[in-house]
Amino acid sequence: MATSPCSSSGVSSSSSSGLGADAGLEIRTRSVEQTLVPLVSQITTLINHKDKPKRSDKTLQAIQRVGQAVNLAVGRFVTVGEAIANENHELKEEMSVACIEARRAGETIAQLTDVANLDHPESDSHITIFTDKTGVVKAARLLLSSVTKVLVLADRIVIKQIITSRNKVLATMEQLEKVSSFQEFVQIFSQFGNEMVEFAHLTGDRQNDLKDEKKKARMAASRSVLEKCTMMLLTASKTCLRHPDCESARINKDGVFHRMRLALEQVIEIVTDSRPNGENEMAPISIYSGIKEFKNKVEGLRENLYFLSKENLSTMLEVILEHTEDFTDSAYTSHEHREHILELSKQAKMELEQLVSVWMQAQNQKTKDLMEDLEVAILKTCQCMNELKREVHSAATSLAADLLKYHTDHMVLKALKITGVEGNLEAVAEYTCKLSEQKEQLVEMCRLLRHVSGTEPLEITCIHAEDTFQVTGPQIISAAETLALHPSSKIAKENLEVFCEAWESQLSDMSLLLREINDVFEGRRGEKRVYLSLPRPGKHNANLKALKPVKLDTEEQAKIAKLGLELHLLTSDVDSETEKWEDQENEIVQHGQGMSSMAYSMYLFTRGEGLLKTTQDLFHQAEIFATEGTKLASALHAFSDQVHEDDKPLLLLEAEKLISVCKQLQITAKASAQGKSATFTKVDACILKTRNVMTLLCQLLPLCFKLLRKNKAGNGCLKPAPPWKEDRLRTGTNAHTPERRAETFGIKSLENHVTNMTFLESK
Description:
Elements: H1 30-48, H2 57-87, H3 92-112, H4 133-178, H5 182-209, H6 213-242, H7 247-272, H8 287-299, H9 310-328, H10 335-364, H11 368-406, H12 411-422, H13 425-451, H14 456-485, H15 490-521, H16 543-546, H17 554-579, H18 587-606, H19 615-640, H20 648-670, H21 676-714, H22 724-734, H23 738-745, H24 747-755
Helix pairs in contact: 1-4, 1-24, 2-3, 2-4, 2-24, 3-4, 4-5, 4-7, 5-6, 6-7, 6-14, 6-15, 7-14, 8-9, 8-11, 9-10, 10-11, 11-13, 11-15, 11-17, 12-13, 12-14, 12-15, 13-14, 14-15, 17-18, 17-21, 18-19, 18-21, 19-20, 19-21, 20-21, 22-23, 23-24
């Protein structure tokens, strides 16, 4: 089962306080993870109180309120968990144990926080949070572990519903395959349609809930197949019933059923995280991912000269160059692209040889000159790999653009429809050959695009597209042959139309996919969004046109590489902070994300990558970045009106600091710089001051997050939970659909009760 105990995951946000969920539980869905966040946060806040020397009456009362509130919320939470256990006997024992542990831990926390009426808690014989630090940490750990178990066990019920729904679909499909009359087919297909709608809802919710982006992409691909095949199954089955002795109609129908079964199986593999016969999923390695890993290893030599062997690097490069043969051996790669790829492959080998030579010398003797030579060799090797990446990207995307443009008229499909209706078997055979050629071209296009897709989800989308063309091509051919044999058959004509529409739809999807791949390459989306704020002709100061565009050379990149890396790390920290916010539309979050994206594009500039091509692009980006920082400061001023009076001065002080560093950056970015040396000094200063702003942002975001939660808690988050016995159980008794039962005894009902743990945080 997907959520059975397996590899360690825990709850990352609790680690800083020594708390963690059961190491044997892996959390694979966002709903479970997000449900735990308020509990982890409150427990962490509670634990942190023990380190504060001053304990006013207000603090003691706040601690007691938090402890009691946690206990009450756990009690409500456990009640729902017990109801789930009673409804699902196979999980009853595990769920009951987890509920008992959670209830016990909640009661312990309430006892340990019963401190409000104690004048001298330390000297009193009564055991409290102040006298038994170990006890409260143990109780907190037990609470987190048991609540996580309850949530993960409840998640199994969702998986069980998907499996049950899939089994119903499969059973009905078997009946559909065996029917021999139209009347029987119509009745069973109506049932099949309802079951597919239910399956689509369940799997759609699951897809949105998955944390793993690869699994989300695989689920989306499988659901797309099922959606398109449902209509194909209808027309292919009707055609087979109308023409029971037609071999091509039978082949056409069998192909649809086979593809649907494969898609259903893949959905179950994803939700249960299993593979048939225990085999491991071996994802094909793309050129992009190979180059990325190779560059990371090469750049790692800056920090550690001994963490890998030269043989490892050589092997990695060999694998990458083997994959480039997919391009050089392809009949569809232009002569120019083929020659460039071969030249760059040769150059990459030479650059690596030079790098290894300097690297080996540096291991024996770490002189300043050798370390500088090593830095230059690292940059040259990475630059060569970037050029190779750019060349294969150009080869794949230009081929895709040409093919998609060439096939937009769908002439072959139109000809197959016309010749099929005419009953012209010879012409149909001629056009099926042309369609087969077109299919081979498109399959090759998908294979090459996969190498340059840039992200794992897009790689999976390319693989799905390749499979779709591979399967749909022969299905169109069998449908066209059936129509040619029965030219007056309306259902055979309709069947061919459905398969042709599927082909056209996939071609349309390829245009969108190509755009996404180009966006990733240009830094507009993917692993990190890059803020698009480049100057456009005629939109900015006329002086910008007069300035000659300047790029950093290899030596300058080497000097600024460390600063760029620091900037990269800060953007990751800012992203981690913004992801914690529940309201992603919050003005503070949006400004923070925008600044992080711009800082990331500036980091890419230090590597000679991304959308910022010249120093002037960088300076303009720095100005926009500083402006965004000033807007954030304004948002902080507005936010200060919502926080407690005692917290307001600190927030306003941080906002003023932000305004100051942003002004400094703006002055630097606007200052004139003539000559190479002065320009590089300005670049260095801009990156340095951007780093200073990002450092301050890393401090500001957690402060705002804490104050926001404190403010919400202070405004009355201790709301009574809805009477679940009267509402929830009554709903559960009356409702029989899987969706309603999932709502009653699934993750959502548990979320509601854990949400009530977002209580008052004292000062």
